[in-house]
Design a protein that fits this description.
Blueprint: E1 2-3, E2 10-11, H1 39-72, H2 77-103
Helix pairs in contact: 1-2
Amino acid sequence: MVRCDNCGYQNPDGALVCRRCKKRLRVRAEAVGPRRGTEAELTVVVAGGVSRLALVIGGILLLGGLLALPLYRRVEPGLLAIAGGALALGLLGWRQTVGLRRDTPR
């Protein structure tokens, strides 16, 4: 129900003018839909996703290199360096994301 500020009459929802005094009703804006995140919250979400992606890629490369070891009897040193770097960056990003998540106001 929408209350008229002029006469106090209770009008049905969605009414534009008062049924009693014919004055225009003031429409109050209501928030509709999901709340929009702040830039800080979105940054935390993206940083967490990128960190997880780096961890997964590093893990896949490391696992692939270790599984190839019995077959080829050697592993390319560059592959291990890239896998280790991806894992290190992923862990570092994950650690920083945890700190950002804790500092972000809710």
